[in-house]
Design goal:
With 81 residues, the protein is α+β, with helices and mostly antiparallel strands. Helices cover 19% and strands 36% of the residues. The protein has 2 helices and 7 strands. It starts with a strand and ends with a strand. The mean pLDDT is 96. Keywords: Electron transport, Iron, Iron-sulfur, Metal-binding, Transport. GO terms for molecular function: iron-sulfur cluster binding; metal ion binding.
């Protein structure tokens, strides 16, 4: 499973941070950070999600108020917006 995070879309509510430790606060920028995320495009970060963190990663995506987080299965099908 892969998570994709659009940092430009993020509005800094940090709900994802509260749900999964794969995200951290960047208070200076007022945005979340995808820990160990790889930047694939400007302000788009991706990361493979460990199996034991899949539930929390999905929940982090679901609680994002601006849909800045998407989750994809191993076949590339989008599971969460």
């Amino acid at each position: 499973m892969k998570i994709e995070y659009d940092r430009d879309t993020c509005i800094g509510m940090f709900q994802c941070v509260a749900e999964w430790d794969g995200f951290e606060r960047d208070e200076d920028a007022g945005k979340a950070v995808l820990v160990d995320g790889e930047e694939t495009d400007e302000d788009i970060f991706v990361q493979e999600v460990p199996e034991d963190a899949e539930f929390d990663a999905k929940f982090a995506a679901r609680v994002c108020p601006v849909d800045a987080i998407a989750v994809y299965d191993d076949d590339g099908e989008q599971l969460i917006p």
